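On clarity, I found the account of how folds are encoded harder to follow than it need be. An entry of this sort, consisting of the sequence and the corresponding backbone structure tokens, reads as follows:
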Amino acid sequence: MTTPPPAPRPVASFFRGVGDLGRGFAFWGRLPGRMALGLIPAAIVGILLLAGVITLVVFLRDIVDALTPFAEDWAEVAASLVRLGIGAALLGGAIVLAVVSFTALTLLVGDPFYERIWRSVEQHLGDAPPESDYGFWRSIRDSIGLILRGLLAAIVAGLVGLIPLVGTALGAVVAAFLTGWLLADELTSRALSARGLDAAARRDLRRGQRARVLGFGVATQLCFLVPLGAVIAMPAAVAGSTVLARTLLDRRAAMSQAEESTAPTRSGNGA
């Protein structure tokens, strides 16, 4: 009788997800040529989005003032607190949207490069799935979907950021987790789709190990916030997501095997 693998504790599982990204970075030493290919689209998209965020920061005060004419007659302290909250919400939401858009646009622009990275990682790990055509139009559809979900996450994080006193910190945490989940969702899609899993099956698989998926996604998102981190981390995120996808599948297979081996025993006990 096969013993089912013990369910990992959420905190330990979360850090195992962080470790999956670390294993992705390790491929810089194993497949340096292929990983370097991913720098090109990441750099192009990263520069454009960074320019947008910097522009927002430069004009943020003017934008906040334009949005809060009602506070002109308020006491200075109250007006400053409201404007600070709105400014933090706008900037936080913009950063969330930029991170998600970076992933979506980079995967779209650099699809041929990341296809090679993914395939090389699969072959290096062994038991690679058969060749599959992810498709240009599918990439566009997935990118648009990710950006729209990122916009929703940005709105949610922005609204949370408006909560007095704790809003800025709480909004940052909410943004990290929402964005992390979206990034992990998108990045693991290629490896899982290549193995015949549709969108519903992929969601079920990820939900079965939420903490690990979140650990990988949040770690990726935090790397993207470091200057130039997004450019260097993007190839590692593609490699790490391949490791993560295979781990999720292996654990599901182990659980299924354990359940099948115990089924006759349960049936015999019930007879």
Notes: Residues 12-254 form one domain.
